[in-house]
Amino acid sequence: xxxxxxxxxxxxxxxxxxxxxxxxxxxxxxxxxxxxxxxxxxxxxxxxxxxxxxxxxxxxxxxxxxxxxxxxxxxxxxxxxxxxxxxxxxxxxxxxxxxxxxxxxxxxxxxxxxxxxxxxxxxxxxxxxxxxxxxxxxxxxxxxxxxxxxxxxxxxxxxxxxxxxxxxxxxxxxxxxxxxxxxxxxxxxxxxxxxxxxxxxxxxxxxxxxxxxxxxxxxxxxxxxxxxxxxxxxxxxxxxxxxxxxxxxxxxxxxxxxxxxxxxxxxxxxxxxxxxxxxxxxxxxxxxxxxxxxxxxxxxxxxxxxxxxxxxxxxxxxxxxxxxxxxxxxxxxxxxxxxxxxxxxxxxxxxxxxxxxxxxxx
Length: 362
Ligand SMILES: [Zn+2]
Hints:
Elements: E1 2-3, E2 6-10, E3 23-24, E4 27-28, H1 29-46, E5 51-54, E6 62-73, E7 84-86, H2 93-104, H3 118-121, E8 129-142, H4 146-152, H5 156-171, E9 203-204, E10 207-208, H6 217-223, E11 232-236, E12 239-248, E13 279-282, E14 297-302, E15 307-316, E16 326-328, H7 330-335, E17 343-348, E18 359-360
The chain binds zinc ion.
């Protein structure tokens, strides 16, 4: 019997046969679970918490307050799973619920029910532990789902920090703070390319950021143009962006819109939008439905100073006569230190309305 405050296991670590773990497009469990487990262990030990850190090979009996087994899920077809929790006893439920509440503040994808597979409910590690609080298998997400993997991969150490916070709270020892939203540090300008971790390309679920030459039925219906006339495809710091001129719109100061005019996607009254909001409009293709675009997050970068904002999509426009690709909120333009008709870059952001990331990020 070994005693400690906590047991943290990196699932599948070290196995060359048998349950070697899931592999996904951006990495596998054997690579990812030790990163999460190591970071959590490091932070907890620095705070004076006694942690046993194990790989896939457990033996004997661990006498701890909480045991966690770090995993990522795989599923077929991909993206049919998400985050989940496994445990073998109803006394674990309180801790499971607390983890779910904490992680839900950040995790933007779905949750599967607790113990939704027999691997979760009958995890082999349970028989090696004796816990006073709980033993949990934590599946942090589905790494075979590209969208989830893109969210998870840059956050592996951050997940370790979140886990350390959770465990510290659970055992009331170490007093480790919640790391807060990933990448939103107190000094946003310390890393010049901080925005790169939010970058999510020019295409999502088959929808694209409009750029020059792309046919767009919505543009045709609204303005009688078959193809998008503006927006150049460029590369900036190894990432592809759509580049073009921008201006600001909506809010109290916008004299060009009627008092009761609303945003086509969100229905918000444009002139009543708060001064400090971050939103945008582009000439989207609505053909496959507007739901995809509503409050979708975009990353907008000013290549002159590397400042970047995350904005939400609320409306369609501007008119092509402006020769601009995008309208932004006054605050977004100000945060980017840009002015009307400056050339900016845009792409999808990997955040969404539940990520609690909006505004200046770099
Ligand atoms: Zn696993």
